[in-house]
Amino acid sequence: MAVKFQDYYETLGVAKTASADDIKQAFRKLARLYHPDVAKDKVAGEAKFKEINESYEVLGDPEKRKRYDELGSHWQDDTQGSSAPGGAPRRRTHSPQGETDFEFSGTGFSDFFESFFGGGRDGFGSRHPSASRPSDNESFAQPGRDIEADLLVTLEEALRGALRKVTLRRPGSNGDADRTNTYQVHIPAGVREGQRIRLAGQGSAGAGGASAGDLYLRVRLARHPDFSVQAADLYCDLNLAPWEAVLGVQAKIPTLDGQTSLRVPAGTAAGSQLRLRSLGLPREDKTRGDIYATVRIQTPAVVTAEERGLWEQLSRLSPFNPRNGS
Amino acid sequence: MSSPISTRDYILTLVHVTEVQPTTYSLESAAQLADVHPEMLRYYCLLGLFGEARAQSDTQLVFDDDALYELRRFEHYRRHHGVNRKTLRLLCGLWREVEHLQKEIRFLRGS
Questions:
Q1: Which of A29, A67, A122, A303 has its CA 20 to 30 A from that of B23?
Q2: How close, in Å, is residue B39 to chain A by CA atoms?
Q3: pLDDT for A75
Q4: Same domain, residue pair A47 and A184
Q5: CA A119, A133, A210, B23: dihedral to nearest 10 degrees?
């Protein structure tokens, strides 16, 4: 089955020489634009959001980015069975006839990603019947391999739960027809990063009448433009002007349930974390995690002559010196 | 006269729709699905292979899809790679630590 090359740099609109910060900024900008909650065209927005997420999943990780860059124009050689320059590993599974065993759609990741960067379709279990075939006069039965694939789940889906359609296609062998199975996968509210959902008996076929392996869908939480996830808690940055940090402010911050207002107390230091209770992801005990807003103090890049005068006046008046702790 | 229709000219695609949702299993069901004796599974729990949450023998043990995946992985390494229980325990600790560190890195890199 043909694997289409994904140009992750083009998707994020960055040059191949872009720095990690440039890539992060490009991701955030595009993710905010195409996030399913804000995109005008929900369906197209969701597809684009997943593309952007996949691109950042690779380019935002220095090791994966290095592997991707090494693949370069030789990526097709890799899918054909030869090893790519730089030793990029082969991840697709192949049947003895040289065909790919499985092709997924609806997981949120492209086949290209699954082939080179996915969790590994080629799970544990019996490798190939010939690997441990008993002598000819013994009856032979070998259970099939378990297969694993990644399933991209947005934070909103993790919060509310979702129903996803995942399609798995296997090419027919010995002239048989292709077999396509479609699964309505219930993603429960509170699903966590790395959690597996089992599709019983949907892995590789067993040999000699033995049972088939299982297919496991491993949850990968989509990167969010505003939040990082740690268990059920969400972390975001709260940018404040210096005077807002000194005087306090009522600031608006995004949550998965919509915008909310947060009272920043006077004298808030950079790096302090403000907690919004029970606005994070669901926990197993049905409660919700929290949102932690980390204060970042931003300074204006340009100041007018009048502003500069006021800052200078303040610097003369204030005894505060952050370097001696006063 | 028309020529007979050859089925080789057609690609047939069979489509089945199946409902899937995360499931939990009793000790007996999990043991059966992973082809291990229930006592062996209980022993794995006592060894702490599934983490401390399942280390108590006096509570009713319930296994989710993740636990079943791990159990099948233990059995695969034990049967096909000759890994003994002591080494399995070590491997489990390492797998858990790697997963924890991967999550940590992912968090620290942020969005």
A1: A122
A2: 22
A3: 60
A4: yes
A5: -30
A123 pLDDT band (50/70/90 cuts)? low
Residue ending a domain, among A168, A195, A221, is: A221
Q: Which residues of B touch A125 (CB under 8 A)?
A: 72, 76
Angle at A182 between CA A218 and CA A100, to 5 degrees: 70
User: Domain check: are A152 and A264 in the same one?
Assistant: no
- Per the model's pLDDT, the better-predicted residue between A115 and B97 turns out to be B97
Residue B86 contacts A where some CB pair is shorter than 8 Å = no
Q: CB-based contact (8 Å) between B18 and chain A?
A: yes
ipTM above 0.85, yes or no: no
Number of domains in chain A: 2
**B104 to chain A, minimum CA–CA distance in Å?**
8
Instruction: Decide if A146 touches B, using CB distance below 8 A.
Output: yes
Tokens of A263: 């009272």
Rounded Cα distance between A133 and A23, Å, is 50
Per-residue pLDDT reduced to its tens digit, B47-99: 888 875 555 555 678 898 989 999 998 888 888 889 998 898 899 889 889 98
- φ/ψ region of B30 (left if φ > 0, alpha if ψ in -120 to 50, else beta) reads alpha
DSSP A255: -
Asked if A219 is an interface residue toward chain B (Cβ–Cβ < 8 A), one would say no
Nearest CA in chain B to A29: B111
Q: Provide the domain limits for residue A264.
A: 228-317
Domain at B24-109: CATH code: 1.10.1660
Measured between CB atoms, does A185 come within 8 Å of chain B? yes
pTM above 0.80, yes or no: no
Copy the structure tokens of residue B57.
Answer: 């023998």
User: Mean of the pLDDT values across residues A145-149?
Assistant: 85
Which residues of chain B does A228 touch, with a Cβ-Cβ cutoff of 8 Å? 107, 110-111
Domain map (residue ranges) of chain B: 24-109
